Amino acid sequence: MKGLTIFFTRRPVTVIMILAAVVLAAGFAFTVLPLDRLPHMSVPRVTVETMYPGMTAEDIRSLVTIPIEDAFASIKGLERISSVSRDGSSLVRLEFRWGTDPLAASALVREAVDAVYPALPQGARKPAISPGDPDMEPHAIIAVCAHDESFARRLAGYDLRSMIRRIDGVGSVLLAGGQEDEGHLRLDVPRLAALGLSPPEFAEILYRETADIPAGNAKEGLVELVVVSSGRPQSIEALAELTLPNVRISDAGVISLEAGRKKSVFFFDGKEAAALEIYRRPGSDPIRLSRDIRKVLKEAHERFSHNAEITLVKDSAPSLIQSMIGLAVSAVLGAAAVITVLLIFIRCLRLSLLAALSIPISAAAGVCILAITGRTLNSMSLGGLALGIGLVSDIAVIMLDLLDRHFGDLPQKPSFEETGKRAVSIAGSSMASTLTTAVVFIPVIFLPGPLGSLFGDTAIALVSSVFTGWLYAQLCIPSLYRFTFKLFPHSLHDRTRKNKKNYGTGPLEKKYRKALVPVLRNPRKWIVIAGAASILGAVLLFIRPAVFVNPDAAEEIMVSVNFPPGTMLETIGAYGAALSGRIQELPYITSTYGRAGAEDEDINRRAGMDYRTEELLIRCIPEKGTHIASIQEKIQDIIHAIISDAAPSYAGFTVSLPRDRTETLLGLSSALVYAVSGKDREESLERAALAAQSLKETGTVQIHPMFLRPELRLYPHRDVAAYFGISTADIADNLYLLNEGIIASSLEIEGRPLNIRVVGNPDSWNITQGVSLNNIPIQTAQGQHIFLESLGRIERRESDAVLARLDRSDVVTMEIPGGRQTAQAARQLDSSYSWFSKAGESVFSRYRNALLINIFLAIVLIYMTMGAQFESFLLPLVLMLTIPFSIAGSGPALLICNSRLDSGAVLGLCALFGLAVNNALILFEISEERIRDGLTPVKAVVSGAGMRLRPVLVTALTTIFALLPIVLNPLGNAQKSMAAAMLGGLAASTFLSLFILPPVFIRFFTWREKR
To answer: Could you say which DSSP state residue 501 is in?
Structure first.
């Protein structure tokens, strides 16, 4: 180290060029690094959907879901299997271990699907695989409004979606809302019977006769030609005139262009619309993506504005930029505060600038390290750089204090050897001081799972900044000190000083020594006071509400309205548009948008256990700075006014704030969710009722899924059906086609497909009072028709709409309100019954031990670092007395800032331990140096404390003022609790260390001399 320090001391131009290169590299890295709100920490998940139209949820569970789960059970790296079975579809969600490559996981799932598909019931569609995180929010939403809903859906789904998908950084683009046209061929069942055809037979003939079928190859000389039998009509009119074997389509029924059944609705500011939800590909730059989306929208406006209104409903970039600007402003204000403190205490422009130069150099190096390690510029990494601003100048101040104390009075520049020798003399202690600050964050980088992803960026940015600050102070400051020796007045201390004996005798030092006298006279009293303050701080610290992450300020209000089971989406869309328009009229609401239902391609949304087609979700965007609580009350009044009158049978509604993104990703909730398993759903419900009875005194218990749907169940008269030669399957096929209809053909109109649905025609059944299943005619084997009421008994009942499974067992989940009494009762049930267990472990619960080990490891590393430096087992324990002093300020600081005891505060306490020990190191080293000069322990400690008063205050105040803008940031950020804990703890530990440590050191030195 000595040779390296002298080498750089001799070459100030080289030092300047290196520093300039670091800044330029950081500028380039800043333009390359993508911005993001949070580090990427999505759990690898894959969702598999298998559709079997017409099959009930119970049959889907037993015939489709369970075989698929059994096939997936042996996949490597799989942690959890959950599934939901609904009418016509099975959705199985696979969650893999943290760190699993999503592409590799999808490949393993695809292999398992290929193996199990042949064993599924005939008629089941090939399972669709959708990798992705269901908790991801769309980056942007585009609404397309037009007078014709079909045109709006075609424009959004074909033209606009193809333009969006070409943008670099776009992951998936999902369509919602709008109207899709279909060609409906409504069958004349009696006429078909006269022709000797049943509806399913006619649909099969239509399918085969209107398809383009390959018919082999033909040779024409040396040319081989492909033969295709072309049966697809070119228009609806051509299809209507088509003649099939034994029947003409116009004789079989009436074909017309009609609206298809909606699978989702979307509305924006009181108008129904079609929408595109744009999801960002992980690792892409959200700012650039938003910019490219706006360019595409501008182009789309030029092409389609005369036919439709295209609006960017949601864009995540502005709030992201605002959050980043808030952190950047906090960092700049912190840097300005640090420079101001340096100028006030150092009182020398040259030396203040040399100390302040460590801030941009360290920040630049931190940006470079983030780029090298493949990180992003997010709230966590920028927060780490902001937190490091007050720490990086500490060693620079100590180095300048040392150099100016020895060379400040010289009439000429000191020699290279003398400057390097003085710089090397504190290399070990400065490295130890840096290690005690940085070592507490090094284990954070290796925290498991999402903890390492969430806080790893903060740790990398802070550790790289602190070590860069040490390198700058150790290698660059000696050279820059000599290079700028005669540029400005150079005294770090009082200019009235005549020799080094007067060092540390300024007015501030004199007042400090005077205040220290009563403490030295009665040290036990003050030690008891300090201990009481530490205990009080610990009490205030641990009574703070414990959460994992403090949520940021809410940017929108969520309205959820539940409609009765079976409510048509067309009805829900009309109510949703009315609600959206009324809410949007509120003076403090800028925009509203919402949706209900989900398209077939939206697998991740439909895979949720709580997903219901009948749930209407509206998002309300308030103006900035609006009081959220008052708006929530007004929205509730509007919902009461509209829904209560228009839809008196609605199931209920809630007006709430959406869950914080971090909280969602980490699986956190204020409620406790437990899974109750059983051999089937009935047994699960019985056990859930037993558990609810045990927990009824702790609050309301909600059981999910409890979604019922109305059902008409046909119990056939088998003897009658056998007499007419009709099987139960034939009855079901006829019913399905005549009611639901099937897609029997497809046309291509203007380059877009148009499905032709064959469906029954109620008018031909002579129904006068609405549709009745009893009046549906079923064709017999002899070509006769018999009404359904003669073939079976129809009963109305309620049936389960969703059947859930977890880890290959049927389950229902119980949501229990949070609270100590509730948690204790739930834990007792968990220990008493094997079928009662946590539904999903939060990250905090799963990795709580890792956080505790991190705290313990930080303290051990601090102890080992100081023990190696001083070659002592006892001295580090004496120096670590400052750690409880820091807690005396952390608890009140969190209370004043209204911050909770979260993981950020825990990590802030870890960093605080290292900072608090640094003050003890500074005071101990100068006291030991004075003892080596021949002073008694009392004089050495008192004079040394006075000599190091300014460096201690400067290093503490620079850190405090650098943290203050983050604490006062009104935008809210994840580092607020961390900064509050560090600020309050550092202030308390600095004050108590200056007065409590001197008598402790005196006792220690006296004991060591007598030993």
So the answer is: G
